[in-house]
Design goal:
binds methionine sulfoxide, Beta-Lactamase, alpha+beta, about 35% helix, six-stranded antiparallel beta sheet, globular, 4 helices, 6 strands
């Protein structure tokens, strides 16, 4: 059994240390992408404060298709270049959006979402999909989130090699 801590961890870096340890443990020795992404979505959703959606979209035939996630049901297909996810995927760059209502073409899956971070998943220059996390709090995602989430995506991608 894996333990999702419900202790208050005020320091965001220490919280990410706990998150990375748990994702490392739940994906250790497993190469199946869907299984690892499913467990990672669960850990991120339950252990990050002020998050209402955490999950993955996977590249299928040149569009993004909904993958493992936690949160309310979400739109299934996103074209490259559309919304925050499609833009991050097309640019192969992390996007931190402090106010989703100001992002042109933002796709609202949950009306509660106010800010969002999307990290592309890339293996050997090839786009696999994106990690998408939404928050009901404006300006929720900082550089600490960006750096740690990018390294979590790297860890997940290294599991599938
Ligand atoms: N807001 C995203 C769509 C996915 S949901 O947030 C889960 C976007 O604009 O791409």
């Amino acid at each position: 059994m894996f333990h999702i801590t419900d202790e208050a961890i005020d320091d965001p870096v220490k919280r990410y240390d706990a998150i990375v340890s748990l994702i490392d443990a739940v994906t250790s020795g497993e190469r199946d992408l869907i299984a690892n992404l499913a467990n990672a979505a669960s850990v991120l959703f339950h252990m990050l404060p002020d998050v209402n959606w955490a999950g993955f979209y996977l590249l299928r035939d040149s569009e993004l298709v909904l993958g493992p996630f936690h949160g309310k049901p979400a739109c299934v297909r996103i074209a490259m270049g559309r919304g925050v996810c499609g833009t991050s995927a097309e640019q192969k760059q992390t996007l931190v959006v402090p106010n989703v209502h100001e992002f042109p073409g933002h796709i609202a899956c949950d009306a509660a979402s106010a800010s969002e971070i999307v990290i592309p998943m890339i293996v050997a220059d090839r786009l696999i999909g994106v990690l998408d996390i939404d928050s009901p709090v404006a300006g929720r995602f900082s550089d600490v989130d960006r750096l740690h989430l990018e390294s979590i995506v790297e860890l997940l991608m290294s599991r599938c090699r």
